[in-house]
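Sample entry follows:

:::
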Amino acid sequence: MSVETISSAATHARHLPQVTEPRNAGMPLDLNWVLSAQANTSAIERRAASLPARRSVKKTYQAAWLLKAVTCIDLTTLSGDDTARRVARLCAKARQPVAASTLDALGMSPITTGAVCVYHEMIQPAVAALRGSGIPVAAVSTGFPAGLSPFPLRIAEIEQSVAAGAAEIDIVISRRHVLEGNWQALYDEMRAFRAACGDAHVKAILATGELGSLRNVARASLVCMMAGADFIKTSTGKESVNATLPVTLVMIRAIRDYFEHTGYRVGYKPAGGISKAKDAITYLALIKEELGDRWLQPDLFRFGASSLLNDIERQLEHHVSGAYSAGYRHPTS
């Protein structure tokens, strides 16, 4: 992938997820398929450990991959001290995530991030700040991050966030359904969340670090897709263990199996703990190898991140100038 070829790909950042694909309609719960899903942990960990060493890119190719990563970021603020002004600054960064001078030096046209992700209370300020940009607002919902609020409240929260202008809803599943092997309950919950989202696209957060095993991750991924999830997402970013390469490998292979079985492409979003540019490239390389180039567009792949953009900017500036800038020169909010 070169800087030249990335320019046209970057325009996808202005599209909502799945707009170029038939939306995942889901399917009846197939317990035989779910229960047949297994995970060879040692083989998965070996495959994941080998990737960073085998997929190192330099110079212009590295810059191209990093620009691609920018267009796939859900620029996120999920802090208790969020304010409308802070969110407005974040949205300004989403509109112009990389300095114009850096883009000019790379021969690139303007790009944007894939979305801005906020709590419900910050949806309206975000929508106002992004008006006319084509950048969607994503809202975390359903009792984020634990997902333990009363079920009617979780449904109402989704509906209110959609009414407030959120085009994407990041929901959290009930982990207990996975830990108890109650796949019907997980399917029914996810179907209800999907219905409450209406035309808004739904990302199912599995909180993989709390599911007990990679096999549970594989099975939960399949159930959520069967129930109509548009994306499956690793984590809330609030768990002790968030996105990892082994978990990513399990989830994207479930996505591949689901596509081969149904013809629907479901998106993938690793979130939490991805803060370095080199890690972003590793994740993109894994997606390319396992799912192919089509999943390298922001309608099918997102990073859930807040600090990742800062490091990517520093790397791009180093590529252009030969010197690293201080991190404080690239604030995200």
Summary: The longest strand covers residues 168-172. Residues 245-262 form the longest helix (18 residues). The beta strands are 73-76, 115-118, 137-140, 168-172, 201-205, 231-233, 267-269, 303-305. Confidence is low (pLDDT under 50) at residues 1-15.
